[in-house]
């Protein structure tokens, strides 16, 4: 009888401690974990792709687990992400492969579908981005700098390296913890979006592996709704009317032939064709060669009288820049550099 009484008292103590811990705020959203390889017969993944992970996660707040499968192509050029619900493909997202690829799914607004917080890049630099799912596409809505809060170092702010992060700090009101109006220089490879005047700091929890990498100066952190943060860091659109006038001179089709396979210059199959078509509000890119046939939707980022900057609709780090000197048009493209393995310029003919 004494043994039973002691056991009950211990159990009640553990239950009380658990309840107190569950009431803590703010909460940390932890990354979903992979559950291993998936059955290709159950999920129609193209045979040319290598499956890296399978995750089970509630993506739309209906308390049912959906499946996200991440795969890469044979050359590790692109990462493919397949989202399935009850065996049906909901989304397929494709983005350039990188050794760093982490994500968190968090509901930061009033709709049912969660937003995606992604870290993508490599040892030379990474982009930290929040995406909204719009239709069948993921749309980047906020680029940011990451800050780590490590409870071993109270009152100190650390740069949040991807492998040190446990999760995103969000309170019960779906507000993220941020710091604004900081002039923080970065010397790594990263995207500086044209529609943002700064990269705000976004706070994560975790344990730092580099405690010397402190952020010494930062404005006080605060909790805000995501849409409020986006509004505060957005650039004003005072020049939109002038830009629309300039756009008219860029409307048209631009094309060129280029050597796709360096060792096959004497063979017609060694050559490819680039076509970029620009209309008033959007642009399209097409590449045709013996190796591949690609089509991409582009977004107009910036326009001047002698330069237009475009990027891929779903990958802002993939940039296409056309410059004009008299009647000569030259293309520079990070996407073309990646597929060719060289940094080249391409002379375009306008039609």
- Helix fraction, binned, reads 10-25%
Q: List the quaternary state of the chains.
A: single chain
Overall body shape: globular
What's the overall average pLDDT, rounded? 83
Number of domains: 2
Query: What is Rg?
Result: 24 Å
Strand element count: 23
Sheet with most strands: 8 strands, antiparallel, barrel
Note the total helix count: 4
Q: In percent terms, what proportion of residues is strand?
A: over 45%
The N- and C-terminal alpha carbons lie at a distance of: 93 Å
Give the helix/strand class: mainly beta
Helix and strand succession? HEEEEEEEEEEEEEEEHHEEEEEEEHE
Largest sheet strand order: 16-17-18-19-20-21-22-23
Query: Which stretches of 5+ consecutive residues score pLDDT under 50?
Result: 1-24, 31-41, 238-245
């Amino acid at each position: 009888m004494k043994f039973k009484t002691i056991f009950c008292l211990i159990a009640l103590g553990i239950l009380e401690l658990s309840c107190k811990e569950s009431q803590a705020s703010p909460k940390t959203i932890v990354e979903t974990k992979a559950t291993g390889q998936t059955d290709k017969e159950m999920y129609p993944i193209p045979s040319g792709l290598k499956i890296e992970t399978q995750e089970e996660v509630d993506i739309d707040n209906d308390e049912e687990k959906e499946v996200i499968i991440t795969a890469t192509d044979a050359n590790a050029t692109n990462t493919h992400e397949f989202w399935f619900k009850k065996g049906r493909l909901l989304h397929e997202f494709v983005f350039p492969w990188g050794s760093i690829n982490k994500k968190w799914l968090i509901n930061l607004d009033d709709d049912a579908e969660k937003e995606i917080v992604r870290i993508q890049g490599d040892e030379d630099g990474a982009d930290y981005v929040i995406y909204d799912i719009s239709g069948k596409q993921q749309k980047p809505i906020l680029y940011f700098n990451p800050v780590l809060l490590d409870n071993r170092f109270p009152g100190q702010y650390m740069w949040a390296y991807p492998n040190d992060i446990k999760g995103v700090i969000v309170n019960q009101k779906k507000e993220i913890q941020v710091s604004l109006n900081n002039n923080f220089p970065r010397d790594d490879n990263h995207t500086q979006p044209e529609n943002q005047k700064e990269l705000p700091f976004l706070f994560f929890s975790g344990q730092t592996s580099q405690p010397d990498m402190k952020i010494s100066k930062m404005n006080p952190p605060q909790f805000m709704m995501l849409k409020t943060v986006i509004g505060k860091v957005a650039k004003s659109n005072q020049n939109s009317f002038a830009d629309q006038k300039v756009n008219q001179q860029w409307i048209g089709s631009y094309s060129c032939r280029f050597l796709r396979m360096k060792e096959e210059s004497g063979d017609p199959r060694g050559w490819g064709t680039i076509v970029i078509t620009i209309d008033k509000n959007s642009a399209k890119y097409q590449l045709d060669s013996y190796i591949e046939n690609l089509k991409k939707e582009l977004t107009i980022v910036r326009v001047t009288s002698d330069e237009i900057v475009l990027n891929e609709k779903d990958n802002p780090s993939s940039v296409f820049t056309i410059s004009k000197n008299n009647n000569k048009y030259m293309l520079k493209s990070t996407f073309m550099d990646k597929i060719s393995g060289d940094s080249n310029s391409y002379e375009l003919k306008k039609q």
